[in-house]
Amino acid sequence: MELTPIAERFILHWGEMGSRWGVNRTVAQIHALLYLLGRPVAADEIADTLGVARSNVSTSLKELQAWRLAKVVHVRGDRRDHFETSTDVWELFKLIVEGRRQREIDPTLTMLRDSLMNPDMASESRETEQRIRDTLQFIETLTTWSDEMLRLKPDTLMKTLGLGAKISRVVRRKSP
């Protein structure tokens, strides 16, 4: 399949952004391709389109499946596995936030809580203990807020974000 210049630019940029987010470039490019096409695509077609090795595509698709960002679908009359992703940007955002939380935030919360419960904490300075408590409280507050936001329907979330931006502008104007 031949990509248009805009599609190619989008896919290449998404790959660059993926590596900045700590995601393999090819994984991000495959996700971008599936997102733009909005239809099931066979792995060999992905490899040909992006010019990457079939083994790299297989590994990348497994990673996308682990993040729940791609799934296997079957196309009538074709025995090969095909892959697709959601074209709903909010659904993708939620999946990414949930995945990052499980991999990054939850282990950090566990470590902070365990540190505060650890008998060795008694030998730490008050400042160290307070910084750990402050960090825990900050992350818990952010995760509680993000959980609430992600429970909202997309249109309600957009209105809430817009209202939050308006409140922020008003507060900034009133600040000395």
Automatic annotation (TrEMBL):
Q: Which residues form the signal peptide?
A: none
Q: Which domain of life is it from?
A: Bacteria
Q: Name one GO molecular function term.
A: DNA-binding transcription factor activity
Pfam families, per database record:
MarR_2
Q: Which UniProt keywords apply?
A: DNA-binding, Transcription, Transcription regulation
- Provenance organism: Trinickia fusca
What name does the UniProt record give this protein? HTH-type transcriptional regulator
Specify whether Transferase is a keyword of the entry.
Answer: no
Family (UniProt): Belongs to the GbsR family.
The record places domain HTH marR-type at 22-80
